[in-house]
Amino acid sequence: MSRREGAARLLRFVLGALVIVSGCTASVGTESRDGARSADATDRALADLVLVQQGSMAVILTAPHGGRAEIPNVELRRAQDGTPGPWGGVHTGADLSTDVLASGIAAELRKLTGRDPYLVVAKFGRKYIDANRPPELGLEDPRARPYYDYYHRSIRRFVNEVRAKYPAGLLIDVHGQGKDPDVIMRGTINGRTVQRLMQRGGVDAVTGPRGVFGQLEANGFKVFPRNDVPPRGTSEDAGYKGGYTVFTYGSHNRDGIDAVQMEFGNRYRQKALLDKSARDAAHAIAAFYEAYLRP
Length: 295
Fold this sequence. Notes:
Helix content is 44%, strand content 12%. The protein is α/β, with parallel strands linked by helices. The longest helix has 47 residues, at 3-49.
């Protein structure tokens, strides 16, 4: 082989290698773009079914049971409604209008304080996911798990942020109950989930005149237990004393904050009274915030 032929063959080899490398790079780039588009689509699907609002004050509002939306390609839970079991058993019906109530309270707090509470609201129906249960009880179809995880991941992120930015905070888990339509049921697992609040401000921080449930009463709500009954022992209604959310994020946990469950009776969630309930609850929370949380 002549020197000229050898040089030509080497040139052809180099050019061929460059074509192959270029093709591989284009393929990797296409796969990367496709992967990013797929991730974006997944994030949008999750965000469509879980309302997440960044906050600027040390209050987190959550509402796991007000949603009514279907989850595409996810099977309904098959467990029968009313089946007894841990964490209150199986329930697939919505706490009607609690999603609207939580969002309304958030909007009213903004008007009153100039600040936004953190907000996490499930839009998906409870017949698909019960976000106030551990995952092994709250869902059945594995395809529902990303929505469940997104809901709780958002809460955890906000709890961690409140812990990092503020001296103290309060998570309020908004629910609805029909046992007593004229009452808000107090849920602190009999004081367990508000340990730090009571260490800091005593029982009055929960039930006193400026306490969170004291202020609910001052703003026209009837509360149970009455505010002369301290949160300890077995004072709270066993069915409404606090569920998985306040248990998971409450201040009895090293990585938690103070947390209360508010079970709004049916009357407070009637369409004609819903706006008033949101305003009155926001006034109560704002007064509590000024007394016990404002930095």
